[in-house]
Structure formats: structure tokens, C-alpha cells
Amino acid sequence: MAAAAADAAEVERLYELGERLSSAKDKSEHAADYEAIIAAVKGQSVKAKQLAAQLIPRFFRSFPALATRAMSAMFDLVEMEELAIRIQAIRGFPLLGKDTEFVSKIADILGQLLTSEENVERDAVHKALMSLTRQDVKNSLQPLFKHVESGSEIREKIICFLRDKVFPLKAELLKPQAEMERFITDLIKKSVQDVTGSEFELFMGFLRSLSIFGDSAPRESFQELIEIIQAQADLDSQFNVSDIDHIERWISCMYMALPIFMRGASSTKFLNYFVKQIVPAFDKIPEEKKLDLLKTIAASSPYTAAQDSRQLLPSVVQLLKKYMPGKVVEYINHNYVECLLYTFHHLAHKTPNTTNSLCGYKIVTGQPSDRLGEDFSEHYKDFTERLTGTEETVRAASKRLTQGMADFNKAISSAKTEGEKTKIRSTDCNKDNALI
Q: What is one Pfam family matched by this protein (predicted)?
């Protein structure tokens, strides 16, 4: 009973202090009252601490000399065990944030509270952080991105908050547009140095949505995006054929870069890496990754510059000769050949004077590099034989597939139960894969 009475008395005292401050014309004359409210944080009463969490932010701006003590008291409140106290303090933080000096520190503390397992507390943190961000975008976002950049244990929570709460409101938050888009771009560039593949895609998707990287942006802007992707692909490292993560990252980065290649950004560094690092080790690359690699090169070939085409074409012809045998065989990898022929077509179109020395196709451009005076007839004979053999192999495979489809349709029509149909479909699928 005595404890309850003491609690009630303490709460009543705080109400009186709050009323006195509210009614005072010159609040600065009542610094002692505000100090008493701050001191209540160190007391025993839970309800008094909860009330103090409301009163400290309310009169915070009236006592700048006590700002540091008040802020320290609020930080103590959010570390307390009682959920009601923490939530009240969290809700009061945006009022403290109206003083620019403390915004970064408050944003940092709120960011750490995103790990809360209590839904109501986490919701309060989201609302407080968004309120703070609307007041001061720069000083609110910098400490959050710092956690992502440093790889701290709360980085995943921070990224989820940015994805779900901040990024969707970019039109509202990033004003003036050009200045703030540049600001957040610089933050992201520092933060993506050590992120997962999905996180990198998230950040790159957001950057591509900004106006400074829009359709009317200068070519230099697109090249900036490519350089970010190049860094993620780790193109300065030695290729290690046993490092599957690096292979997958290279493939993923190439796919992300394709829309930017279409806008005029250079693919030179990616293609140089493919020619010098990947092609020499191509035989040792796992089969399931070879096709993905060839697909990325094929997809980028329409946007490859003539100079890069000239460098890449010999490697493409080298791989074509490997996967297009010089005589008719039972089986060839049609997927590989399709990718390589598609790539060959686009590259040869851009650098026609290289085809004579590579495969004997004489195309007159009027340049010495046509090498029209030299005899490459053996190259031509070899290459056309490979093309003919591939054509015949494809024709035979097509005939088998056509016959297989006819047999399949006949079997399905004659099947009497769904179980029989399912069995036919399963068996036929395996046959088709074997034929291809």
C-alpha cells in the first residue's frame, strides 16, 4: 500500500510540474521544474517514468541548456524492461528530432530498436522513424545506411525498413529532387559493397527508378550504374572456376546490366573479363552454369560496341567450333549452339572485316583488316561443314520431336484414366529431354 501511495504521489507531482510549465509564459524561468521531470526517470515508479516520457519531449525545446540531459534520460527510457515506458519514449523521439543536432543520434537509436520482437513496439519505431525522416531526410538516413555499410547485426532490419517504408515514398521525401537523389545514390553506393544478391538487386532497382537515371539522363549516368554493378561482379579478381558464388554473381550482374547496356552504357569490362578469364576455363565450368553464361553474352551482343565485338568474336568462334562438330553426330547441345550463333550474328554484323580471317567469310569493307589478299578457304570449308552438320542434326532432332509429339497425342487420347495420362506425360517429358 505504501508503495502504491508513493507512486500515486509521484505521478501527481509530475502532473503538477507539467501543468505549471504549460501555463508559464516564460518557461525558461522554470528550469528546476523541467529538471525534476528529467530526474523522475531515475525513480522507481513505472507510471511516473511513463509520464516523464511524455513530458520531456513536450518541453524539450524550451530548455536548450538541459537538452543533453533530457536526451540521455530518453535513451535510458527506451532501454527499460517495461514495454509501456519504451513505447511512450519512442513516440516522443520525433519531437526531440526537431532540433537538428540530435536527429542522427535519435535515428541511430530507433534503427537499433527495429529488432524488437514486440509488434506494437516495432510499429511505434516505424512511425517514429518515418516522422523523423520527414523532418530531416539527410540526418535520418545517414545513420541507417551506416549500419548497412558496416555490416552490423541490424543491417537486415534496416534494409527491410528502407524497402518497405522509405523507398515507396521517394517522391515525397527526396526534395529537392536532383540534390536528394544524388544524396541517396551516394549512400547506396557506399552500402552495396558487402550485401547479398537479393539486397543488391533491391538497391539497384531503386536507383534505376530515380529520375537522375531515367530515360532522359546523360550517358554518364548510365555508366555510373554499370560501374556499381561491375564492382559487385568483382571483375578485378582472378576467375576461380570452383567459386560457384562468383560465377552466379557474374551472371546475375550481367542480367542486371542488360537494360543499362541498352541505354548506351559500355559493356567493355564485362566482355573483357569473359574473354580473358572465363573462356580459357570454360571446359571446367559446371554444365548447369555454362548455358547461363552463354545466355548473358547472347543477350548483350546486340548492344556491344564494334571494338568490343572485334575482341569477343574470336572467342565465340572458338566455342562454336567446340560445340558444332565438323560432321553429323547423334547429339549436340542445341542450347549452346543457339546462343553462340545468335551472338556470332550480332558481333559479325558490327565488325564484318574480322570474319574472313576467323571463318573465311569475305566481306568487303575497304579496310586493310579485310585481308582479302590472303587465302582463308580452309577456314571457310571447316566452318560451313560445321554449319551443315549442325543443320542436319537439328533437322533430325526436329523430326524425332515431331514424331514424339504425334505418339504422345495418340497415347493421351487412348488413355482411360488420369493416372495413365500422368504416367504418359512424365515418361514423354523424359524422352523429349533426351532427344534435345
A: API5
